[in-house]
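Reviewer 2 asked us to include a model.

Predict the structure of this chain.
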Amino acid sequence: MSGAKDHAAGSMPSALPEPDLSRLLLENLATGVFGVDLEGRFTFLNRAATRLFGFTSPESVLGRDSHSLTNHGDEDGVRYSVIECPIHRAMVSGSPLEVGTDTFRRIDGSPFFARYYATPLLDGAGDAQGAVVAIEDITENLLSERTLTQYKAVFDASRDAILLHDRRAIIDCNPASVELFGAPSPRDLIGHHPADRSPEVQADGRCSRETAETYAEQALTNGSVAYEWLYKGLDGRTFPSEVLLSRVDLPEGPFLQAVIRDITERQRAERELRHSQAELAAAQEMARLGNWVRDIESGQISWSDEVFRIFGLEPGSPQPDYGDILRLVHPEDRERLERAIADALENGSGYELEQRIIRSDGSQRTVQERARVVRGDGGRSVRMRGTIQDVTDRRRLEDQLRDQRDLVETILDGLPAIFFLLDTEGRLVRWNRNLERVTGIGEDRIQGREAVKLADPLDRQRLGSAFELTLQEGSAEIEAGLRDHNRQLVHYLFTCNRVRLQGGTFLAGFGVDISERKRLERELARQASHDHLTGLYNRWKFEEVLQLELERARRYGTQFSVMMFDIDHFKRVNDEFGHDVGDRVLQGIGALVGQQVRRTDILARWGGEEFMLLLSETGLDHARQLAESTRMRVGEADFPRCGRLTISLGVTEYRPGETLLAMLKRVDNALYSAKRGGRNRTVTA
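Predicted model (C-alpha cells):
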C-alpha cells in the first residue's frame, strides 16, 4: 500500500448550494461522505458512510470524535495521532488531500482498507471550518490484486532461474537456479557472493566481480538493468546467460533480484542463422534470374545474358524471335504459353506461369515466367516486359520439403507434450503417440473418438466449451485433467488454435503436464498462511480463524478462550547461543505445545517468541488449567544446548458483544502482567 499522497482530489465546493438538494444527493451516493469540524467531530454522515463504519445511525455519532471512532491508521494499521492524521492536515493546510490507501476500523473493531479524499470547508474569509471526506472500501479489490500479483510472480519466476541477493551474498534462490548451476541444494548457493558463480574474467576481458558491482549499482539506482553474462556452474561448466537485474524493495531494505536464462542454445541458433543467412546471400547472388522485353509492334525481342544462359545459349547470340522461343518450350507447354500471351495482349494485363524448356543440349529445365503489358498513349499496348527464372532446383527442394513433412510427423510423435488435431465436431483425426501413452488407448480405438471423453468427467463440459470457443474466435487456453492409463488424474494446460488445412477447418492443440505447477501453487497457498520456521499458522491466518470463531460465538452463543504466551528471557538464548539455537527452541516449543492441543484448537506463531492458542468451546477455568499444564510441560523439557526454559502466559475468554480488538488487547495485557509479576506464571483476564 502507498502512504499519504498530497494532490488535488477533485473540486468539492467549500459550501453546499441548495441544502435540501445537496442533502438528497449525498444520501443517495454509493460513496461514503462525512464531514468533520476543526476539532475532528462528526458534523454529518450520509447513508453509505454510516454503513461503512457500522454505525447504527448518523445521529448516534454526530458531535463525537471521528478520529477515535474510525481508528484511522497508516498502511500498516498503525493509528495516526491527531496531528499526523491526513484529514487534520488537510484542514490545517487548507489544501485538498487525496490518500492512496489507508486503514480504518468499523465500530466493531474490524479493519478495512480505504481510498479517500479530504477537502477543507472554507468560510467567506478563506479560513478552514472543517472538512468533507469521501471514502470507499477497497479491501476486497486490494487483497485480490495482491494475491494475483504474488501468484503470477511466482508462476513467472518458476520458469527461469532467480537469485535474490544483496551486494554481499545470495540470500535466496529458486529451484530453477539450483538446477541451472548444478547445485546439490540451495545451501550451496545461499551465502555466497553473486560473483562467485562466475569465472574471474568475462568473455570480453572484464573482471567479473568489478563488473557485477557496476551492474548492481545501476540496478539500485535505475530500478533494473539487463545484460548478458558468463556464469560458472558448480561442476566448472561455463555458460552464457541473459540477466535481468532488478531492485526489489522489501521491508528490510532494497535487494537485488537476478532473473537468469541460459542462452547457450539461443547463441548457437543465432550463429547457425547467421551462417544460413550468409549462405542464402551467396545463393541469391548466384540465382539465375533474367529479364526480357518484347516490342509488340515490331515483334522484336531482347533477352538479358542470364536468359541466354537459362536456355543453354551463349550470351551475345542473335536475339531470338517469337518462333525461336516457341521451339525452345516443351511441346506439351507451348499451347498454354501461347494462350497466356494472347490473353495478356487482349486484356492489357499480364501472366504468370511455369513451363518446361528444352535446352540446346537436350536437357530439360523448369522455369517460372512473369510478364506485364506496358501501355502507351491512349492506353494502347506497346510492349511486354518479363522475367524468367530457372526454378528446377526449387521444385526439387519442394520434393525434399514433402519428405520433411514426414519428419515433422516423427517429431510430433516424439514430443513430451500431448498433440491432437480435431475436426469441427471435436473428433480426433490426428494425434501423437504421447496421447496414446498417457491415456493407454490404442490407435484402433482412438481414431474418430470425441476428444472430451478422454478428459476427467468433471472437466468435460468446460473442455468442450473451450473447443467451441477456439473454432469461433481462433484460440483458447484451458486447464483440465486427464485420466491416465492407471486412472490417475493428471493436470494439463491445453492450448488450442483454429487452423486451415487442405481447405478445411480443424482445431490443433497441445497439452502440457502442469501437475508439478499445481503442486507448487498448493505449496504457495500453504506458505501464505503458515509460519515458515515453525510450520504453525501465522498471525494473518490466526486472526482470520479467530474472527470466524468470534462470529460463530455471536451467532450461536458458543464460548471460546484465547491463550497467549511467550518464552521468558528468549533474547538471552539468542545472545548466548546464537539465532540458530533460538530458531530450534521456537520450533521445539511449537511442536511440544502442538502435541497436547485438541484437533479443534488452533496454535499459531504470533510473532517473535510469542504464540497464540485458540481454545474453542472452552471457558476461562478450563483454559487456565490448560495454560498451567502447558507451562509445566514446557518447564520440564530440556532444550539442546540451552537447557530448561520457562514461559509466561495470558488467558482470557470471549465476552459476548465485544470486538476482536478488545479481546486481543485483554489477553495481551494479561501476558504482560505475567511478565511483570516475575515470569513463569499464568494470568487470566
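The longest helix spans residues 392-414. The radius of gyration is 39 Å. We have added this to the supplementary material.
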